[in-house]
């Protein structure tokens, strides 16, 4: 996957797996292990994992984008992979269907893939004039156009405030959307990008195009990305063998914040919100945090792959130690 690329980089960039060395070090895919790649994408991480788990191991590759799944099937032909077309938030159902209880590792490489950004008709990028879509799973019925044309001013304000960091311009932008759609609906990436540009000053976002964070906010909302991540991380901990590793690469602070919150909670570093007075029974420590601070790509990697520059890497190991 990659970060939000609306910053002038060419679509001709090589699609390389982000922080591959760190993934292999922390995930530790040994021969015979069963690993779940929850964001299979083009299979860049997966193929290196497969080479290490060997014929006696098994990779379960989950991908909600059918285009990405088909690319991965071609790339991983001949390796011991079980391909699943689904959202990783459905891990419990996936494990039930595979009659699996626990595995040896999980990888989450979040965000939107370079392939998705570079395929204009998917509507993720304002470099192309295309339908305002943004669905990672095209079986979903709700598009970004549906949100901007149907949501109330208050709902749009909340999306831009909570997800897009549009800040004090959130309500102004929501009001402008509401006024614009009274004349005609906003159905294309170009229409939406121009509206944002006209209503959110460029200097508010420094080097970013004014529409970057608004596009990101819509994408997160369309795909319910934070809710899905929260559910999936809890399920991954539940389905992990002792000493299994869970690795997460995120590309914006909402993803990283949710990952950090979940890992800290299940490591016993923080108490559940339902326990404001610390009177609950002792918490069971379910994970050890392996990365006290998030790792970031090396300067060499960001030089070769600028889309990796916003990546943050966190990892935990499954345990069962009472605090």
Short description:
The protein is α/β, with parallel strands linked by helices. It folds into two domains: 20-115 and 225-322, 3-Layer(aba) Sandwich (Rossmann fold); 141-222, Orthogonal Bundle (DNA polymerase, domain 1), CATH 1.10.150.
Topology:
Blueprint: H1 20-27, E1 34-37, H2 44-53, E2 58-63, H3 66-75, E3 81-85, H4 91-98, E4 103-109, H5 114-118, H6 144-150, H7 153-162, H8 170-183, H9 189-199, H10 212-223, H11 225-238, E5 240-250, H12 253-266, E6 284-289, H13 299-304, E7 312-322
Parallel strand pairs: 1-2, 1-4, 2-3, 4-5
Antiparallel strand pairs: 5-7, 6-7
Helix pairs in contact: 7-8, 11-12
Task: Describe, in plain words, how this protein is organized in 3D.
The chain contains 13 helices and seven strands. With 323 residues, it is of the alpha/beta class. It has two domains: 20-115 and 225-322, Vaccinia Virus protein VP39 (Rossmann fold, 3-Layer(aba) Sandwich), CATH 3.40.50.150; 141-222, DNA polymerase, domain 1. The chain has a seven-stranded mixed sheet with strand order 3-2-1-4-5-7-6, with helices on both faces. The chain is globular, with a radius of gyration of 20 Å. 46% of the residues are buried.
């Amino acid at each position: 996957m990659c970060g939000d690329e609306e910053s002038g980089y060419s679509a001709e960039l090589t699609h390389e797996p982000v922080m591959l060395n760190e993934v292999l070090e922390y995930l530790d895919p040994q021969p015979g292990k069963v690993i779940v790649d929850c964001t299979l994408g083009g299979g860049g991480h997966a193929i290196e994992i497969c080479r290490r788990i060997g014929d006696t191991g098994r990779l379960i590759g989950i991908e909600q984008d059918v285009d990405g799944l088909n690319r991965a099937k071609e790339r991983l032909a001949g390796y011991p992979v079980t391909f699943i077309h689904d959202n990783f938030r459905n891990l419990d159902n996936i494990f039930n269907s595979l009659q699996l209880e626990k595995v040896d590792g999980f990888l989450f490489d979040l965000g939107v893939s370079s392939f998705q950004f570079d395929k204009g008709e998917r509507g993720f990028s304002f470099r192309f004039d295309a339908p305002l879509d943004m669905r990672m799973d095209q079986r979903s019925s709700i598009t970004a156009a549906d949100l901007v044309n149907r949501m109330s001013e208050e709902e749009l304000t909340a999306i831009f405030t909570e997800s897009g960091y549009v800040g004090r311009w959130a309500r102004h932008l929501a009001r402008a959307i509401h006024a614009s759609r009274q004349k005609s609906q906003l159905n294309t990436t170009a229409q939406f990008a121009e509206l944002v540009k006209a209503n959110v000053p460029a200097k508010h976002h420094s080097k970013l195009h004014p529409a970057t964070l608004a596009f990101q906010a819509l994408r997160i909302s369309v795909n319910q990305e934070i809710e899905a991540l929260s559910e999936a991380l809890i399920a991954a901990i539940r389905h992990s063998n002792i000493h299994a590793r869970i690795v997460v690469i995120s590309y914006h602070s909402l993803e990283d914040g949710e990952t950090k919150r979940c890992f800290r909670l299940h490591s016993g570093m923080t108490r559940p919100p339902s326990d404001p007075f610390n009177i609950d029974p002792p918490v069971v420590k379910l994970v050890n945090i392996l990365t006290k601070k998030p790792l970031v790509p090396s300067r060499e990697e960001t030089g070769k792959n600028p889309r990796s520059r916003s990546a943050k890497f966190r990892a935990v190991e499954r345990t069962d130690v009472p605090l």
